[in-house]
Amino acid sequence: MQRIGYREKLETQNTHTTREQDPFVTTVERHASRGTDFVASREIRVLVVDEEQPLTDVLTISLRFEGWHVTTASSGEAAIAAATAESFDAILLDMMLPDVTGTTVVAALRARGVTSPVIFLTGRDSLEDRLAAFGAGGDDYITKPFGLDEVASRLIGVFRRLGLGQASLVYGDIVVDPQSGQAWRAGEQLMLSAVEIELLRALVTGWGRVHGLDELIGDLREWGYTLSPAQATRALETLAAVVDSDRVPLVHDTEDDGWFLGAL
User: Fold this and answer.
1) In the CATH hierarchy, which top-level class contains the domain 3-29+167-261?
2) Which of 68, 93, 119, 128 could form an S-S bond across to 44 if both were Cys, CB 3.0 to 4.6 Å?
3) Stretch (H or E) spanning 215
4) What is the mean pLDDT of the chain?
5) CA–CA separation, 115 vs 242, rounded Å?
């Protein structure tokens, strides 16, 4: 955490950059055709890789019913070609394919710079299989047989982390999902209390300007939390320590007890 006295610098920057122009900021809000609590800011793209055509067909129908665009592949080679040719928000990948293993596919994709989250689909659930899946760069693991709702739920969790959830708040690599009460930085979940999440939400919403301590305490009161100035300061200090741990500092306090979110 860095203590600064840069009010003038912030005001100067903000005269030249509007919220719409700032490349770090996005508020993701959109209506979807289905009445679920998850909607996206754009078309979500999913790659399904499995050699079992009946399973691929069922998954395709189910995911398209969610409103997502689905591409399929039946081999590791085809999966690598598809994932390197276009960008996918998630990949559902069978662990055992006719030509190579799923872990080989993930390793090849990561070596090529493909960072799409991968969820493995497999009938094997030993500890060794799980370790191999995560060790290769997989993000999640679903054991067959599985329910279609479970697959959709796992994917929605990935999309929330990416900032694609309804009203998700994004600044740089920070994502706050008000619906789930979760936050991430660079894809890693931030272990924050409910109060700290609300403080981060306020800072992200009002990025680039100084928030007075009394203002933040008032925001918390509106959300049902009553804190003293000392308690609020401790919560903000904890928030800054967690958000900025081993990363470029983004949460700063000022010389006059204000707080703001921004890159210096």
Assistant:
1) mainly alpha
2) 68
3) helix 213-222
4) 84
5) 24
Average pLDDT over residues 163-182: 85
pLDDT at 139: 87
Residues in the chain: 264
Secondary structure class of 14 (helix, strand, coil): helix
- The amino acid that residue 61 corresponds to is I
**DSSP 8-state symbol, 59:** H
Query: For 124, phi and psi rounded to 5 degrees?
Result: -105, 130
**Bigger pLDDT: 186 or 232?**
232
Beta bridge partners, 26, equal: 170
Question: Which tokens sit at 258?
Answer: 């204000």
Instruction: Tell me the C-alpha distance between 253 and 250, whole Å.
Output: 10
Angle of helix 76-85 versus helix 102-111 axis, rounded to 10: 30
Q: Exposed/middle/buried for 75, CB within 10 Å: 0-12, 13-18, 19+? A: middle
- Please, are residues 261 and 171 in contact by the beta-carbon 8 Å criterion? yes
Q: What is the DSSP letter of 190?
A: P
Phi, psi (5° rounding) for residue 2?
Answer: -120, 125
Interatomic CA distance for residues 229 and 18, integer angstroms: 31
pLDDT of residue 187: 85
| 115: Cβ contacts below 8 Å, ≥ 6 apart | none
C-alpha R_g of the chain: 21
Q: Is the pLDDT of residue 31 over 90?
A: no
Fold assignment, 45-161: Rossmann fold (3.40.50)
